[in-house]
Structures are given as C-alpha cells and as structure tokens.
# Entry
Amino acid sequence: MTQKRDHNQIMQDFRLRRGRQLVAIAAALLLIIFLALIHNRSDLFGHVSKNTISAIELVVIAAFIGFSSANWRCPSCSRYLGQDINRSICKKCGARLR
Ligand SMILES: [Zn+2]
# Structure
C-alpha cells in the first residue's frame, strides 16, 4: 500500500518535472529564434551587434542547462534523466516514471 502511494507520487512528480522541462525547452527555443530574428532583421529591430546577440544566446543556453540539471532528474533517485523527454523508466533505479 505504501509502495503504491510512493509510486503515484513518483509519477505525479515526474509529470510536473516533465511539464516544466517542456516549458523550458519551448522558452529557450523561442528566445534563440527571436535572437536570430533580431540579428537578421536589423531593419525592424535596429542594429544589435553580433557580440551582444551571442552573449545573450550564451546566457539563455547556460540558464537552460542550469535549469535542466536541477529539474530533469528522477523523482526517486535524483539521477539526471538524459536527453529523452519521453523517458518512461529511470535507467538507474528502474522507477516507472509514467
Ligand atoms: Zn531513478
């Protein structure tokens, strides 16, 4: 009985983490696309130097990696879950995630 509740908590926690991860991926992609747009359409957005764009891109990527390394972890054993957003079983502890 206790084990069943833990199992549900793991799946619920994973759903939350996966939702946050998808939002973070979408936000990072949109920001990168937007930055490319700013760079390519200086007629619309005014001139922003390539260095400024690159610096902001680096910050976006660093923030994304930082967020992922904190968020994208197994709810049961806290191991980083890797590249697969649709992972359903933790490789380390074997917990079912969804
Ligand atoms: Zn695990």
